Amino acid sequence: MATNSESILIVDDDPKIRDLTTKYLIDQGLNVHAASGGKEMDNFIVSHPVSLIILDLMMPEESGLAICQRLRGSGNFTPIIILTAKGDEIDRIVGLEMGADDYVSKPFNPRELLARINAVLRRNDLKQAQASNSENLAFGPFIFSSDTRSLTKNGVPISITSGEFELLKVFIDRPRQPLSRDQIMQLAKGRELDVFDRSIDVQISRLRKILEEDHTSPKFLQTMWGFGYIFVPDGDAVD
């Protein structure tokens, strides 16, 4: 259950909904703050830690979808509950695809919102506990976690697609083991490599741009000429 030690930020341009929701949640013992839009939100979170953001999707200056995308794109993974107009299924789906954790449709029962807040915070606490107990692989400035499906560089989350993550996991599970393109395709995609399929090379090129200081002279994902690729965690040259 959420407590007053956790800070909730409501971002909504409707002052009536913003004020009524803030009052209700404060009455439930929560530490709640409010912002009328993206700019006020940005100013607040710069100097205040936030446990969860309640984000209205329909706002005039910057939509909630744009704010959600911007936060996730910048590496901010604070849990988000989006507020959608009843029946706006497409916006709700897009919001979840952009990284929102849950949604509540307007008009909403405040008790339902409180229940969603508690559920999202519980899931986030569990995720953090699993992350702290998981065995992560460190190489160079990176930490790779298969439990949380995350990649960080010097402690900063790195944006990585699910396809790139699965491909990197193939290499991380087999350090210093040369892998042919056929093996990589089978392990990452579960299918055979077509003779004209260069998708593995394209994805490895993208991974190198994420991992390597100089992707034209890679240290971690090295090429085995005439064979395939090899992952070298310490970045030393392969004989």
From TrEMBL:
Gene3D superfamilies: 3.40.50.2300, 6.10.250.690, Winged helix-like DNA-binding domain superfamily/Winged helix DNA-binding domain (1.10.10.10). Keywords: Cytoplasm, DNA-binding, Phosphoprotein, Transcription, Transcription regulation, Two-component regulatory system. GO terms for biological process: regulation of DNA-templated transcription. This is DNA-binding response regulator in two-component regulatory system with EnvZ. The modification 4-aspartylphosphate is found at residue 56. One of its GO terms (cellular component) is protein-DNA complex. Signal peptide: none annotated. GO terms for molecular function: phosphorelay response regulator activity; transcription cis-regulatory region binding. It holds the Pfam family Response_reg. PANTHER family: DNA-BINDING DUAL TRANSCRIPTIONAL REGULATOR OMPR, REGULATOR OF RPOS. Residues 134-233 form the OmpR/PhoB-type domain. The keyword Phosphoprotein applies. It comes from the Bacteria. It is found in: Cytoplasm. The gene is ompR. InterPro entries: CheY-like_superfamily, OmpR/PhoB-type_DNA-bd, Sig_transdc_resp-reg_C-effctor, Sig_transdc_resp-reg_receiver, WalR-like, WH-like_DNA-bd_sf. Residues 134-233 bind DNA. Residues 7-121 form the Response regulatory domain. SMART domains: REC (SM00448), Trans_reg_C (SM00862).
